[in-house]
Each structure stands twice: as structure tokens, then as C-alpha cells.
Amino acid sequence: MSSNPQPIVLGKLGSSYGIKGWLKITAYTDSVEGIFDYSPWLIKEQGEWREVKVTQWRYQGKAVVAALEGVETRERAQMLTNCEIGILPEQMKDLPEDEFYWRDLIGCEVINTKGYNMGKVDQIVETGSNDVLLVKANAKDSFGKAERMIPFVTEQFIKEVNVSAKQILVDWDPDF
User: Fold this and answer.
1) I want to staple 14 with a disulfide (CB 3.0 to 4.6 A). Which of 24, 59, 83, 153 is the partner?
2) d(CA 175, CA 84)
3) Is the dihedral of CA 90, 104, 8, 32 positive or negative?
4) SS3 label, residue 27
5) How many Cβ atoms are within 10 Å of 64's Cβ, its own excluded?
């Protein structure tokens, strides 16, 4: 799988559930059941990605559990605990022109409304109230910052996102 694009991680397999090989699922999708919109899954087992199919899934209390093809015992399920769940980039749904995936923002240059280049988006942190861009500052940052945390609040701080140009325009003081 080394010549293929890197899978996009959508969640991970949790602990085994029951004696028939079911596993708890931790989903990183907007809604828990959204992870089941994708098929097949790739799971990273012992450092290697391999394809699997979900044969059944259901809510179990507040958790979600699933059965995977070929996983029929508790012992086999336990071997998969904590394996990442991924999909290939081409499996991602196309979005309307004015929408984007968070992964599209990684590496974008962040420039404030006064033209100051603050650096590049290194990651996005979920805080509960709003997501936050973690921006790694340029090597010669004139404000002495190594990184900045900018709340992803559209209209207030995020003025424009141009994914094709890999730029984000923000209303943010570079000294903050």
C-alpha cells in the first residue's frame, strides 16, 4: 500500500464487545454514525493498512459497536483494539465550493488583514466551544512567537479561506 495515498483516519477500533467479535467504535466524524457512510474501511494493524468491511453496526447504549467481516471471536477482536480506521482520499465526499475539510487547512498560510504572514496551519484543535487553528510561526517571526492559536470563528476572526491558494485571511493581532 506504500504507493497509494496515505489513508485519512476517521476513527479507531475500541475494545471488544461480546463473544462474537464485535468491537466498540470511536468515530472522529461529525456524527458517530457518519463513519458508516464509508465503505470499505482500511484498518492499520501492526503498522500495515488493510481493507475490511463492516457487516453490521448498531448503537449499544451511548456507544456504537460493529461487526467486521472475518472477525468472529472475542480473541480476534481484542487483537484489533486501538487500530486506526481510515479511508482513501478519493472516498471523501465532494463538498460544495464554499466548504472544505479540516485536513484541507493544514499547511495553509495564515495572513492577517494588514498583510502580516503569521505562518502555516500545523493542526486544528477541538476545544468544545469552537475549533482552534494552531499556526506555526515563520522562522523569522518579528513578534518572537513560535506558534499562535487562532479561534476558527468565521466572520469574527476568519475572514476568508482560499483552499486552492492555500491561504487563510484572519483578523488577528500578530502580537497576540
Assistant:
1) 24
2) 38
3) negative
4) strand
5) 21
3-state secondary structure (DSSP) of residue 34: helix
Q: What is the pLDDT of residues 46-66, one digit of tens each?
A: 999 999 999 999 999 888 999
User: What fold is seen in the domain 100-168?
Assistant: SH3 type barrels. (2.30.30)
Q: Using CB atoms within 10 A of its CB, is residue 32 exposed (0-12), middle (13-18) or buried (19+)?
A: middle
- Beta strands 84-87 and 109-112 are unpaired
C-alpha cell read off for 65: 459497536
- The correct answer on CATH 2.40.30.60 for the domain covering 6-89 is yes
Helix runs in 28-130, H state only: 74-79
Could you read off the pLDDT of 94-150 as tens digits, one per residue? 888 888 888 889 999 999 999 999 999 999 998 888 999 999 998 888 888 899 999
Chain position carrying cell 493542526: 123
pLDDT at 27: 94
